[in-house]
Amino acid sequence: xxxxxxxxxxxxxxxxxxxxxxxxxxxxxxxxxxxxxxxxxxxxxxxxxxxxxxxxxxxxxxxxxxxxxxxxxxxxxxxxxxxxxxxxxxxxxxxxxxxxxxxxxxxxxxxxxxxxxxxxxxxxxxxxxxxxxxxxxxxxxxxxxxxxxxxxxxxxxxxxxxxxxxxxxxxxxxxxxxxxxxxxxxxxxxxxxxxxxxxxxxxxxxxxxxxxx
Length: 213
Hints:
By secondary structure, the protein is α+β, with helices and mostly antiparallel strands. Helices cover 30% and strands 22% of the residues. The chain has a single domain, classed as 2-Layer Sandwich (BirA Bifunctional Protein, domain 2), CATH 3.30.930.10.
């Protein structure tokens, strides 16, 4: 899904969740090649001109999530939880730590030993970042979320300083784990439901759209 279309969908779901007309949602998708800059990001962490990005087939988007700059693309599972924290915990730090735990537990199921790094946001393995996290909270309802590198072409990270950190990135594939994205998505959803104590139900995109109306 194009990034701007996913951003529009998130805003519609957030508004519906704030009105209390839908339950919590977890959107799982992939984006075409896109670089996004968070509201606290530094433009100097973009290492290429927009002309170079266009020639490489990469779109550039400024957005309202937390965090710095990151890359999204094929082979990367992006998760956008739309969660009303008033019905879970009114604690943004606990929410981010719980998203990290969802990803750590997901990776453990594929025999990847992942962890947090003190003072940093995201999930790491062997000193390399395998998942990025950047969230937005509006009236206690979350949007944006996480990006997990599954079969991501890591060469695209050359155009940025990922999350403002001069540290390497990795993927499940680079670590020797070859798995279908759908299996990873199912595992993410299972751990998300367990950690956030939610019963997970799969919705087709058309059903999600109808829920907003």
